[in-house]
Design brief:
The complex is a heterotrimer of chains A (about 500), B (about 100) and C (about 500). Chain B has about 100 residues and is mostly helical. Helix content of chain B is about 35%, strand content about 5%. Chain B starts with a helix and ends in a 9-residue tail after the last strand. The model of chain B has no long low-confidence stretch (mean pLDDT about 90). In chain C, helix 3 packs antiparallel against helix 4, helix 11 crosses helix 13 and helix 11 packs across helix 14. Chain C is built from 17 helices and eleven strands. Chain C is about 40% helix and about 10% strand. The chains are: A alpha+beta (about 500), B mainly alpha (about 100), C alpha/beta (about 500). Bound molecules: magnesium ion and zinc ion (ZN).
Amino acid sequence: MAKDRLAGVLERYEAVIGLEIHTELTSLNSKMFCGCPVAFGGEPNTRVCPVCLGMPGALPVPNEAAVEATVLAGLALDCEIAPFSQFHRKQYFYPDMPKDYQISQYDLPFCGLGHLDIEVDGEGAKQRVDLDGGPYATRIGVTRIHLEEDTGKMVHVGGSEGRIAGADHSLVDFNRAGTPLMELVSEPDIRTPEEARRFAQKLRLIMLNLGVSDCSMEEGSMRVDGNVSIRLRGETELGTKTEIKNMNSFKALHDALAFEIVRQADVLDEGGRIVQETRHWDVTAKRTSALRSKEEAHDYRYFPEPDMVPFEFSAGWIDAIRARLPELPDARRERFMRDFGLSSADARTLSEDVEFAAFFEEAVALAGTPLAKPIANWMLGDFSAYLNAGTVALSDAKVTPAMLAELVQVIDAGTISGKQAKQVFTEMAETGDAPGAIIEIRGMKQVSDTGAIEAAVERVIIANPDEVASYRAGKTTLIGWFVGQVMREMRGQGNPSLVNEILVKKLG
Amino acid sequence: MSISEADVRHVAMLARLALSDEQITRLQGELNSILGNIEKMQELDLEGVEPTSHSIPLRNATRPDVVRPGLSRDLALLNAPQAENGAFVIPRIVGAEEGA
Amino acid sequence: MSQKTDLAGLSARAIREGIAGKRFSAGDVVEATYAHIDVHEPGIHAFNELTPDLARAAAAHIDAKVAAGEELPPLAGVPAALKDNMNLVGTHTTCSSRILSDFKSPYDCTAVRRLLDAGALPIGKCNMDEFAFGSSTENSAFGVTHNPWDLSRVPGGSSGGSAAAVAARMVTVSLGSDTGGSIRQPGALTGTVAMKPTYGRVSRYGIVAFASSLDQIGPFSRSVEDAALVLNAISGHDDTDATSVREPVPDFTATLGDGVKGLRVGLVRDMLDLEGCAAEVREATEMSVRTLESLGAQVGEIDLPMSQHGLAAYYIIGPAEASSNLARFDGIRYGHRVSDPSDVVDLYMRSRAEGFGPETIRRIMLGTYALSAGYYDAYYGTAQKTRTLITREFDAAFEQFDVLVTPTSPTVAFKIGEKAEDPLSMYLSDVFTIPLNLAGLPGVSIPCAKSESTGLPIGVQIIGKHFDEATMLRVAAALEGALDLDMRPPAA
Ligand SMILES: [Mg+2]
Ligand SMILES: [Zn+2]
């Protein structure tokens, strides 16, 4: 419903959206301020220590790798890396927060202004009614990236569906408490739900490429909150914003923002005013609803964390982190287009996933650059279909870059036909046998020996004088029938293009 | 600057302290008297003076990303006023959810 | 006097040598210690908890080493007491607060672990002002501690129990914590040697925090040498405390006998003239400096006018950090919890209001206010900038002098109840000690005189440069040797 009405609303109103994206640094060994392991799930309170339980007297010591990961992320997004930065305490009482303050960063975050360029195409591009509806690229500012600690988790007992409302009591598990959490705040540069989705998806890809997080929206290791306001087109003043939480997938992010834009427009159209509040996305009801607001306003009483000393990053240190930056999807895509002549769309798909891209490059290295295109086609076609159909992870697949390279080479050499190749691929994916072995066992070798093909063509011509006459009389469509006869004669092993070529010559 | 009774009540709420009217009144007087004695400091010329949050010039104190043994669950829950299924038990929560 | 009570008066070195020479065992020391405690503790109440099982186990360990002919660690068999804000598995850590009255330590404080690893015997946990908020040990949920020199008087605070236990010879050494003078001031009031190391010298891991940027653990002892031995044991970098430094740790006993010839000693003149500083305290301080001069020190005078703002800065920074550090006492993971909470906020509010005593509530309120929206700059920001000026003033003073000398406390021990109703006059007790915490400097208080009118001890504070405890202790040792005071109180 919101989706249908969104287009109409966006004709009259412009949406102003900013995102806050929390990413757990799941690839680290230990938590943000203590030596407890970083992991998901497990029996409650089995990955805890005095520090992450907020025991009296315990002290936090920042994880070096988490600081480096945050600076690395900042460099990936062209952020300014602060020469002087510090942790602050953000104070509020909540049962999942052991110390009743969160160690976070305030006015001195590790990373300042940066940006992320996104591309929008397809249906989603139409949401930008101020543009022509075609594909476009736009730059979204990144306000800051800072580092903080995650909270514990609560299970609400009694009441419905484990929600807070109506629960009789709750159980607190601090296994997650203290997990390193990177928070990115975007500028309010986002104008449509589709742009928000693309921004979050692209950020996720970058984080995966950096290898700092598994970025699982389902397990909550990547969490996106949005701030939305709307204003009449032409207006420069910002409207009152609401904050949307609990958007647990990219679809939810898109749909929740779309709903909220339409909701705000309805309120304004009826002469009402928007209340600044936090709203919760209910994925089943497909609507946002206001959380009961507290009687008191927030007063986090931020002050510099006295258990820690400040950070001063030297240019040399920052350069050393910069040297660790892997090639990011955008750069890789451009290289694939430039070096391998791939289309923009193919290059994008191949370059997004680190492992997939590495597989591709390894196969190309073995088969030679001229075969990059067929390798790309195999990877985007049969191979992707195979992986998706069986939900097989690339790392678990039996196909290796060497096998794919070999397959493409034998096709190129004309040893087997395209049709046979599909058969070989299927068998290779299932057994893990190399193409050469499969071709050998199955007797699939394609005959490209012109002498053998000529002999077979001769035999077919002699055996079918009527058809030859018809053909020569102008019924050239019979060529297909002749090809079939020759292939039958050769038990399917004739090189199709040679067969065709020789037939045309002999018949003509 | 003088602290009103409403200020004291607000601060008590921020600090999560259920104070009686009598405590509020007494604290209002005491806080005003203590802060009154601090006024002299506020007359200092602090233009351009950097704040000191630590007295030692230490920087970039971190630890390597290494796992260390923590507490057994029994020790973690040793002092828990109420525990259930290995978790800390709390009464119901009224009001907004907070997040990181 | 029995031989057992004699043991209780020995120095750390004498105890170790006695055990090594098999004149007595570590087990004998433990029994003598508890026998002495049985006699004096009822009148003094230095302890919240005695830990004979831990002490006997530690003694057995030492005695086994003796039997095996192994080298003994430096504090072997030395009876030690711990302020009750330091975690040690097998003990309660209450901070003398109702909110932690049942709290069992789930882990060890680093400084305590190091002290015990050096062979000290854990005798018990000492009374204190609740969460270290106070200067008299009257703010304890478990009753006041009495000064062994006059049981009607306070021992100072907040580490009053640790001070009284050493003064009364119930233990040889103890650990206290010092945020604004909580080691040095009770040291002065009980006639003991009491020292705050440089901030960052001793790990704070495991000590329940009062004000993280000011807190430091340090020793009480009856001699400068024993203080140096304890400092040797507890100092050094700890990777579980991000504010502990990697400075090299010298053997602090090595230079104690080097004398003061040629050292530049600065008497802080304007502190002596401060209103509220008793004449006898001023005279004792001047006498101490003259004594150092006669021993060959080059003596001069200096004013530290910025330090007079230390008290104001401290009463913002301390409570601000404390209000945050004490948020965790919320009745969820540990600590006092009301029995019938209607919801989580009600649980927080009533558990905390019931669990914390009046001074703790006062400081939490003050600190919360100072950090709250609209007041941060006027209070916390101003205090942090004042701190910068105080630090700079000390830096300049140390260009001229190797050590500085001030009184430790403006008065001798006061009567129990005398200042209890007036927080401001109590806060003034720490006017000479607070500036060091703000600047992170080391300071030691040693007894320098006894009041002519009351016979009560008077302390003098010697202030060192950052991480130069060695010079500071060297001056203290020279003065101690020259004065040669008998500091055995009536109740010992
Ligand atoms: Mg955050
Ligand atoms: Zn932990």
